[in-house]
């Protein structure tokens, strides 16, 4: 199997939901939520790609970096690269049901492990979707991070306890899911949270806690205050708020405020290893990849997922050599070209 076949298979199986475009940039699928697109005009999805494309890389080849170290440690787990699978749920309404929710997430988690890395699993409009993620979490202990929707406090408590029992590496909340139409449509109440509520939730568990959907330095500071172990700088793949900036646009200011105080993940529009290195140079510790892995899972199962991740890993390695970057934990901002 190769990526061309994976993509052709996926295009066939995702008909009506995802066109598997040459570049997955949110243009063709603007407004398709539920579906694979971005909300409204699709501007937030597109902004993720545009923000990354804005940056160029300085090429440097007179140096001693002949090998690049991609390894990354996360809360005691050893990863082959700082690239994780983003949480994705809703195969019936987002992908048109080419496979069951449980099979989908299992292919993502297993494919990521084949490539040496971990996955986040999500929470959707049907509570069984969260359970599917936990099932994979239980089968592959300490390698998944269960991301819970900003449900009612008493519900979140139950969801955290079930994740702990399953044996996940960490838990978290996609707090930007506060206005998701797919949740509202299915009568699952979600809402923004006060700082007090966020603190209450984080204090409930000894597991590392990730707040996903942080887009401003002030909220990143609140995450530190609430003792989150990590944040995901993310506009939810452009699926929740139209006219949000791209993650790469807001990341530098956020990193300046909170770098070193918690783990900074970033996602949105990561399609190549060069995109990964750009986000690391802008202040992320690691990145998440969404839609390309959904395409990999549908088109080629776990092998498709691992092919997608390994392609990015190879590109990241090449890009590190050609920018003189010895390891992913010390990526210099000056690998980015700035016009003077
Ligand atoms: C079909 C689909 C389902 C998603 N479901 C979830 C979810 O359940 N929880 C969550 O935190 N994010 C969810 N997301 C957002 C992703 O985790 C991630 O932030 C986004 O897809 C990254 O952008 P990219 O797809 O351009 O890589 C979903 C995204 C897609 C495309």
Q: Helix fraction?
A: 40-55%
Strand order of the largest sheet: 3-10-9-8-7-6-5-4
Number of strands: 10
Spatial gap, N to C terminus: 46 Å
Small molecules in complex: flavin mononucleotide
Rg measurement, Å = 18 Å
**In sequence order, what are the helices and strands, one letter per element?**
HHEEEHHEHEHEHHEHEHEHEH
- The fraction of residues assigned to DSSP E strands is 5-15%
Q: Which regions contain 5 or more consecutive residues with pLDDT less than 50?
A: none
Mean pLDDT level: 97
Q: What can you tell me about this protein's structure?
A:
With about 350 residues, the chain is α/β, with parallel strands linked by helices. Helix content is about 40%, strand content about 10%. It contains 12 helices and 10 strands. The chain has an 8-stranded parallel sheet with strand order 3-10-9-8-7-6-5-4. The protein has a two-stranded antiparallel ribbon with strand order 1-2. Helix 6 links the parallel strand 5 and strand 6. The protein is globular. The relative contact order is 0.19. The model has no long low-confidence stretch (mean pLDDT about 95). It binds flavin mononucleotide (FMN). Flavin mononucleotide binds next to helix 12.
What's the short story on this structure?
This protein is an alpha/beta fold. It contains twelve helices and ten strands. The chain has an eight-stranded parallel β-sheet.
């Amino acid at each position: 199997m190769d990526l061309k076949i994976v993509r052709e298979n996926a295009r066939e199986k995702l008909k009506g939901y995802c066109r598997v475009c040459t570049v997955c940039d949110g243009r063709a699928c603007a407004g398709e939520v539920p579906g694979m697109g971005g909300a409204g005009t699709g501007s937030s999805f597109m902004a993720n790609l545009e923000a990354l494309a804005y940056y160029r890389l300085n090429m440097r080849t007179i140096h001693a970096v002949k090998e690049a170290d991609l390894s990354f440690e996360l809360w005691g787990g050893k990863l082959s690269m700082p690239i994780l699978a983003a949480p994705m749920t809703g195969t019936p309404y987002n992908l048109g049901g080419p496979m069951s929710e449980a099979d989908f997430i299992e292919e993502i988690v297993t494919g990521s492990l084949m490539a040496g890395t971990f996955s986040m699993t999500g929470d959707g409009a049907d509570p069984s979707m969260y359970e599917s993620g936990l099932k994979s979490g239980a089968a592959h202990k300490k390698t998944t991070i269960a991301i819970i929707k900003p449900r009612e406090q008493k519900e979140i408590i139950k969801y955290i306890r079930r994740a702990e029992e399953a044996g996940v590496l960490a838990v978290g909340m996609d707090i930007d899911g506060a206005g998701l139409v797919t949740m509202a449509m299915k009568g699952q109440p979600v809402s923004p949270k006060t700082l007090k509520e966020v603190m209450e939730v984080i204090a409930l568990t000894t597991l590392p806690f990730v707040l996903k959907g942080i887009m401003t330095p002030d909220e990143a500071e609140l995450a530190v205050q609430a003792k989150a172990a990590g944040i995901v700088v993310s506009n939810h793949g452009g699926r929740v708020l139209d006219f949000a900036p791209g993650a790469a646009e807001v990341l530098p200011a956020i990193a300046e405020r909170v770098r070193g105080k918690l783990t900074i993940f970033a996602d949105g529009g990561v399609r190549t290893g060069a995109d990964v290195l750009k986000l690391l140079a802008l202040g992320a510790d690691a990145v998440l990849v969404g839609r390309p892995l959904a395409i990999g899972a549908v088109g080629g199962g776990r092998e498709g997922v691992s092919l997608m991740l390994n392609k990015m890993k190879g590109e990241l390695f090449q890009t590190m050599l050609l920018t003189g970057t010895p390891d992913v934990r010390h990526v210099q901002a000056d690998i980015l070209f700035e016009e003077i």
